[in-house]
Amino acid sequence: MPELISSNEFYELIAQFGGEIGQSSRGTKMILVKKLLCIGIFKSLPIFAKLDVNDQIIILKYVSRAVVYLCCCFVSYELGSHTLIEKDGFYPMAPFSDEFSFKEDKTLFALANKAFSKPMEPFHRIGISKEEFSLILAIIYLNPDIPGLSEFARNILSIEFSFYSKMLLNYLHNKFGIDAGTKKYAECFHLISTSFIGAQNFTSLYIYQEALYKRPPQSLKIPNSLKAIFSI
């Protein structure tokens, strides 16, 4: 568990943020760590070693933002928060609260709310356990309909997708019964859709901020071996 940030650092981050996570050195490091986490999760699945490198990259590019969102939402949900929050206490919705100047930009506030708070609503409405989350996380990587995949990848992904989906359904049937378990199963897949939508909303927020609140980004030296990760 990381140490809680001080009030001074909190306000410094908001000043750096200018509303944008990626502009600060801390934000850039956070994004890098989460992208490495996406790769680590994928590598932990048995199917990873069976896939060609090109197919691995296609899958990572397609799901990485949604996986980051899903993980951030689950952590925030476990912390009891109704907006995205880091374990050190920083939450990206802070610059858009009543205490700061961004509240005057209603379009920016609406975009930030969609990116940072709206995705939390289904998590609290549905409720999600660690076991359910783990299976959802595996399933999100196993979509055989991702554009650009080889025929071989589609075939084995289809098998694995069916396997993990049935595992989730059986787990929920055993836990809640047939009717309630089937309902929860559909709701779990809704969380996957929510994660992709949340990632798209974050992109919209980023584009809007870039256009209206341009600030020079703080550079972070990244090893050449890791630069490709930022393109995922």
From TrEMBL:
Residue span(s) of domain NR LBD: 1-232
Record-linked InterPro entries: NHR-like_dom_sf, Nucl_hrmn_rcpt_lig-bd
Keywords, comma-separated and alphabetical: Receptor, Transcription, Transcription regulation
SMART domains from the UniProt entry: HOLI (SM00430)
Family: Belongs to the nuclear hormone receptor family.
Name of the protein: NR LBD domain-containing protein
Species, as recorded: Meloidogyne enterolobii (Root-knot nematode worm)
Biological classification of the source: Eukaryota, Metazoa, Ecdysozoa, Nematoda, Chromadorea
